[in-house]
């Protein structure tokens, strides 16, 4: 018989931890929550201090029975759920169900699943932190009060299946507000003048700056003509040369939010996929003889803090691998965000010595790519700053000034390992200028005036939206991925070219919430509510007071909405074709996997069809059908014959209408990291890569 029972959340984690702890310990998994509010009803007694009504989750009875049996046989039970509010709540529910004293040292927490971290954590068990539990309980009750009151109202007034939530409603509003900004945007004309110059035979570029030392904005073609008239000949004189040395610091280690953003930019991962892969890396990967090891620290965090042990190991690795000059002279002081909980460390590799290349054979392609990103970001964050030599040169012709800027990496520092991505495309390469000195005469080779128009703000990508939600203090690390997933599944927004666009349904629901429940969709109010939850966690305020303050106004708005909200008819968008079974018009519907076509005569006719797009290419297999664009259940685009299942042609790469000039087989566009490669599916023919 095992003397001690340890309960964790997942089987993968249980297997790893049991091996570390030895024969005296039996580790079992609760498979997440076992106790929760009922799905069929609100489960909150608003008349009795918002008392939650907890039940055993349907289907979890056998697991709970098994845990009760194991707990009776054990000398002591340790609750080792995740180190966050939700994990604390799971531990609390288990303690109450298994009759464990919550004030006893039954709770064990760890930030990484390594032998050293696990053994150390069991030396310091603690009681269950009721402030953390209350903060999680307050969030659940708050979300129930909002969702289980507003959603049924929308079912009656708009359509079945709708939902409303605090964070998701604000996210949709941000997307709609951005769309309105784009619609209302009035472009303004402006001009630039780009010049190509020669110092001897060395070419370089400079841009028009101004006149008589003052910057001048060019707003019309007439402005450009005026400037060009002031230039007397092709010769410019170097008026000033400014040389500086500039330091560039690395980005800090990842938080949940910054990991989601960077994985979207650099790996093209959706937030949901990023968190799924990070969970796998955290819970443990089989490393051959070494066994199962957690490769990264806990992935739900808003802290950039790093332990001294991790810093020391990183320093040793950096000195050995890159040299002493790449070491930090002193640890950087990271700025803590005002709304950060700072409960545990940043996301980092559990050991710097497990470099990505040595882990590659043990990981799937996507696991490897994410681990490499996390490892490189952490190592770079512990390295010396890069040093850049910059040069700014003013060229003068009469009173007209052109300016050229150049830079060169003097010492790469952290850039040897990693450079943070951005939402906007930037050129990281050196921009070199010839060796210029004041008084040098430069020859103008070409002048190119260009007309431009100001652009509207960009639509939100997943990365931009996560960043905005974080900056506004909306939601917490664990909420971003499910929030973005929910607003798409509900049909409130769609993704077009990886950018969010609101649907008519999203706009209708948002307008109704704005009219009848303004506090739910108010950005400042939602951020303030998040701060209130943090205050509960810190023991500064009672959770019932926070809920009560919210519910008093909310209840008034709810009563008003029940009486005054009018029924809204959301018309289905016509698909432009008739049902082949009954002849009624087909319409577009939103389903779990996106849009599809359905008969408008539902429920009498239940005919449905996927939306297909003919790309104008004949099928190379059967030569009868046409190639059409389809979407897989995971929303990934692929191409197949419209004669399926008679013809089984499939391709992830987009076929082209023109044949291979070498063998006349099918040409396809293959997406690569840095562009598109046109190549033949039969022979070795390839065209020059397009950016």
Characterization of the model:
This protein has 691 residues and is α+β, with helices and mostly antiparallel strands. The radius of gyration is 30 Å and the shape is globular. A hairpin with a 6-residue loop joins strand 19 and strand 20. Helices cover 34% and strands 24% of the residues. The longest helix has 28 residues, at 130-157. The strands form nine sheets. A six-stranded antiparallel barrel has the order 8-9-15-14-11-16. It has a four-stranded antiparallel sheet with strand order 19-20-21-22, with no helix packed on it.
Brief summary:
This protein has 691 residues and is of the alpha+beta class. It contains 18 helices and 29 strands. A six-stranded antiparallel β-barrel has the order 8-9-15-14-11-16. A four-stranded antiparallel beta sheet has the order 19-20-21-22, with no helix packed on it. A four-stranded antiparallel beta sheet has the order 23-24-25-26, with no helix packed on it.
